[in-house]
Amino acid sequence: MKKIMRAVCLFMAFAAALFCAACGGGDYGTLTIADIENLEVGKTAAIEPVFSKEEFTEEITYSFTGDAIAIEDGTVTALEGGATVRVTATTEHHETTFKVTTAEEKVYGTFTVEDVIGLPAGSSADLQIEFTPAGTEEKISYQYSGSDIIIGDGRVTAINPNKTVEVTAKTEHYQTTFTVTTVSSVLAVHDVTAWVGYPASELPASSFGADEAYEWSGENDAIAVFDAEKRTVTAVAPGSFTLRAESSEHIEIYNITVKAVVKSGNKWDMSVNEVGIPLATSFSEQATEQVTQKWNSNGGNEETTLFIGDSFFDQRHFWTDFDTVYAGKNAICSGLSSSTTYDWEQLAKTHLKGLSPKNIVMHIGTNNFYDDGDSVEDATDGLQRLFTVLHAELPDTKIYYFAITQRTDTKYSAQVRETNDAMQEWCDARGWIEFLDTENSFSANDLRDGVHPTLEAYSAFTEALQRAGIEISDK
Asked: Where in the sequence is the signal peptide annotated (predicted)?
């Protein structure tokens, strides 16, 4: 009987175990899902469920409240920034929760790239890129068709002339478009100044080939009248504009500036010094003696070389052995101490008018700085105006212009250097005037008073003239 009871008990225990298993009370393991943090709006992340017992892996459903995220096919997408969402994951035999936090949504402003217009073939330019607000900059990629341009490292290079290319610029969060237009390669860029009431200013000689056809554009007759045949601009009114000469392959650019000249103040008064004190002899009176009378008494003619300008070429006080240096030569020395470009601009229309020298040799400009206190712009304008007037009055005369000499007083040394550089470029672009660079030809020992050369040091001028190939005729 006991054996029967034991068997019955074992049977009942086994049956109970089977009943419990059938009722779901077995060990299915656990389901865990890691939190997903700082998911950016618009970005997705895979949900990674882990079943501790792989044999009990089951289909999962997800539930949550709100619209900050979306879950589909095992991935979560952030729809709103700055949210924390608790998600419940449920299977037939498991349940767990995990958190999804979305990153604060970054504020993206605007992204622009300026058009690049008129980029010469063979040249490059920096792209003008702007992200707003600051701090939202991103890496940019560029898309465009063809091989007319190349973009890299924030620069665009024109390969072929006369093309228009539309470019799309993309970043992770931005997109914009801009245009690049290319033009013929630039042969030269010149700055040309003309003055109201003055003779026409010449454009530098063309760099186009002898047989290269080109057309002009950009004229503005309200500011200056352009004569394409003579290559001159005659000032009408203050202002500026750009002339372009363009062939199928090349372009030349002329930046035209027209200025008004106000002739007032001590610097324009030839009867007073820089502070308004009357001169014992006005520059006009001195010019009558030193220019007109010398020209007449020495038989000045179309073969004469005339030295004029400031005290460097004043035979009375500084270059006293001029007649010895140029003995037997048809040369006259007529410089006026303390004179400036303002004085000689006026004398060119009075005392030089009607003369016909073969050459004019000139040193002028130092007193524009050290007496009149000119700026570089004023001095450069004064020199260019003077030579424009001289050439208009004496069109057949070759002009040799010596650079402004540096003094031992360095107050204006930087301005002198800058003016000389500008004048060398200006003179080199014109066939009727030659710039002689003697700016630093004199040591302190060569200057008798820190300003003027000793007689022995004047050889720097005469030798420079020889190197330039000047022809000084015999008497």
From this structure: 1-21
